[in-house]
Amino acid sequence: MRSSVPVPLSVATSTLIVVGAIMMMTTNAAAQTPMTGAEGARLYQARCGTCHSIAANKIGPAHKGVFGRQSAMAPGYNYSPALRAANINWNAATLDQWLQGPQKMVKGSRMFLAVPNPTERAAIIAFLQSDAAK
Ligand code: HEC
């Protein structure tokens, strides 16, 4: 096995892909005008929908009524001890911080996802605040 060649190559390739993706996101953010409500719903589906829905607990808790409420209050969802102890009020500022790094905000929390693009975070948060999520 000549493993010395393929391994560094694949590392270099994935680094390039990551750098490329970050550049695309950055370019996107700079070029964008504020997103519409429909865009927020679409982003929510795409980024959060694997683990969340508005109406039902899945891997993550249901988001019905989450905007304006205390953390760890979705009925019937088994939260981490960390999030149960956190006592956060979910508003635009706290959700923005959460979406930049849940584990940075609440050490020991169990959500593994960040949304690095601030325009996308704002659109998703606006969706959570809208009637569709009440
Ligand atoms: C890979 C699965 C996963 C994805 C993707 C995900 N989440 Fe989560 N989320 C979780 C889990 C699990 C929890 C519960 C964390 C805990 O108990 O520590 C959570 C908790 C939350 C909470 C706290 C809810 C409450 O009742 O206190 C919010 C808000 C939230 N997620 C928003 C989002 C948003 C918005 C997205 C999309 C940008 C998203 N999540 C994507 C798994 C995920």
Automatic annotation (TrEMBL):
Gene3D superfamilies: Cytochrome c-like domain (1.10.760.10). The keyword Signal applies. It comes from the Bacteria. It holds the Pfam family Cytochrom_C. Residues 35-132 form the Cytochrome c domain. Residues 1-31 form the signal peptide. GO terms for molecular function: electron transfer activity; heme binding; metal ion binding. SUPFAM superfamilies: Cytochrome c. Keywords: Electron transport, Heme, Iron, Metal-binding, Signal, Transport. Coiled coil: none annotated. This is C-type cytochrome.
